[in-house]
Specification:
The chain has 116 residues and is mainly β. Helices cover 0% and strands 58% of the residues. It is built from no helices and 11 strands. The strands form 2 sheets. Strands 2, 4, 5, 6, 9, 10 and 11 form a 7-stranded mixed beta sheet that branches. Strands 1-3-8-7 form a 4-stranded antiparallel beta sheet, with no helix packed on it.
Length: 116
């Protein structure tokens, strides 16, 4: 019912930057959370950053000073600017959407690789 179109990702050297975007479409509710979780091989899928419709932001401690999430409610789109990337940031990044009517939805994932 809700579709997530996730773009961005790629391969960069440590200290580099990448930007991700996610567009929610379909039966999108007026109030929803939109952001990203990530999962590295052999590890749990953990929250990276998420933003509510009203502007509240939540970051993982490991990215709080390096990543910035924003959103355009008119476009149902979230953006994640990632700077000062570290090898530890290497993971598949999944866009995440939730609202009280439709529930949770995940994007297809995009690979972020940080290596020398």
């Amino acid at each position: 019912q809700v579709q997530l179109t996730e773009t961005g990702g790629g391969s960069v050297q440590p200290g580099g930057s990448l930007g991700l975007s996610c567009v929610a479409s379909g039966s999108v509710f007026t109030i929803y959370n939109l952001g990203w979780h990530r999962q590295a091989p052999g590890k749990q899928r953990d929250l990276v950053a998420i933003m509510g419709s009203g502007g509240t932001k939540t970051y993982a401690d490991s990215v709080k000073d390096r990543f910035t999430i924003s959103r355009d409610n008119a476009k149902n789109t979230a953006y994640l600017q990632m700077t000062s990337l570290k090898p530890e940031d290497t993971a598949v990044y999944y866009c995440y959407y939730s609202d009280p009517i439709n529930g949770d939805f995940w994007g297809q994932g995009t690979q972020v690789t940080v290596s020398s």
